[in-house]
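Reopening: structure tokens for the S-adenosyl-L-homocysteine complex, inputs below.
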Amino acid sequence: MHNTDNVDPAELAKFSDLAHRWWDTESEFRPLHQINPLRLDWITDIVPIAGKRVLDVGCGGGILADAMARRGAEVLGIDLATKALRVAQLHALEAQTSGVQYREISAEALAVEQPESFDVVTCMEMLEHVPDPSSVVRACAQIVKPGGHVFFSTINRNPKSFLFAIVGAEYVLKLLPKGTHEYAKFIRPSELARYAREAGLELEHTKGLEYNPLSRRYWLSGDTSVNYMLGTRKV
Ligand code: SAH
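Re-run output (same inputs, fresh job):
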């Protein structure tokens, strides 16, 4: 067992079951592949990551972790979905990505093992899959060095996000399998900002991610009503 209760086994099973398709850019993971360059550029414009020690929490098959390593960071990706981690590892071997490692450990456990040891922590599209997101935010805050950056992304909770992220994405456009997301687990930016503040992270950047189903394109914007990212810094 993992030494944390902050895990939903059904969530991990969902991601493990799909793991073999993680690097198929036309699969269920297409949205993550599409947003990856956008979020990577957004992060690296705020903090250059080359030569930095970066932790990716809930890394899954490693789409962001691998890309950050290719930008010269020394990356550790952690997740609790065993198969997703295996796929991430295999991809790093096949793509010959140096500077990335993967480990099956919770953020909470790593916070105890390696406090204040990473320059940058990323935790993307993961908080809406855990029972207690504030516990993960606290762990990220403990893991990052003082002055270091922590980035989060998740889905807002309001009628529009229900319509776009669940009805639209899962039922109409079928971008994601039905049941990928649960409305009640979505997190408002104000809630995430409060978790961050209470953990000693100062909110510095807010960005929205928008999607046009006709052009099938994503872009960054000031509209945080559905998908959004927060950039914080440990005070
Ligand atoms: N961050 C990656 C993957 C997002 S998918 C990206 O944005 O590309 C969500 C991931 O969160 C899955 O890999 C899932 O296994 C992971 N996850 C869910 N609950 C978790 C937990 N309690 N601890 C660590 N990872 C978790």
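The chain has eight helices and eight strands. Residues 6-7, 11-12, 15, 32, 58-60, 63-64, 79-81, 84, 106, 124-126, 129-130 surround S-adenosyl-L-homocysteine (CB under 6 Å). Marking as resolved unless the reporter disagrees.
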